[in-house]
Amino acid sequence: MDDKEKRYAELVGERLRRMRQERSMSLQEVCDRSGGAFVVSTLSAYERGKRSLSLERLSELAAIYGQSPTAILDIDNEQADFPHRSLSSSGPLRISLESLQRLDPEERRPLETYLSFLRQLRNDPSRDMLTIRKEDLVYLSSLYGVRPGALKDYLEKEGVLLTW
Q: Which CATH number among 3.40.50.1380, 3.40.1280.10, 1.10.260.40, 3.30.565.10 corresponds to the domain 3-80?
């Protein structure tokens, strides 16, 4: 992770800590409510931004806090000072769901999982196109271990990401 990506992980961690504290919960109480899915050291690492969250773990924590996963990821860009500011001027990001098949199965799997999650969250029945936010691209880039701009360029090159 470069410095900007570390800062994003720290901001997500701060958001998690704030949500936990707003509910007057200790780390141990969150672990207890998770039914043993989390341990204190892992939660602490998430809150300090020292460990990345998977989509599944993010969803589990969001459920415990009574929030949507996107609420946890929705960090103010001014606060984050990301290198992907140029993404905001590029317009909406549209994913061609049909074109996902162009990607290798290993490359496609995290993207399909996240897009399926977004479609379910939005109750979106669309089978051909899904619009994502730049924050979604940032999260996806962290799953792939690349910068948002690099993932955007790759998905555009493969014909999966279409911009207006």
A: 1.10.260.40
Among 3.40.50.720, 3.40.120.10, 1.10.10.1930, 3.30.590.10, name the CATH number for the domain at 85-163. Answer: 1.10.10.1930
On whether the CB atoms of residues 133 and 94 are closer than 8 A, the answer is no
For 102-119, the pLDDT digits (tens) are 998 988 998 999 999 888
Q: For the full predicted model, state whether its pTM sits above 0.85.
A: no
CA-CA distance, 99 to 68, in Å (whole number)? Answer: 28
Residues 75/9, Cβ–Cβ less than 8 Å: no
* H-run or E-run covering 46: helix 40-47
d(CA 32, CA 27): 9
pLDDT tens sequence across 112-156: 999 998 888 888 888 889 988 888 888 888 788 778 888 888 899
How far is it, in rounded angstroms, from Cα 6 to Cα 81? 12
Query: What distance lies between CA 20 and its chain's CA centroid?
Result: 19
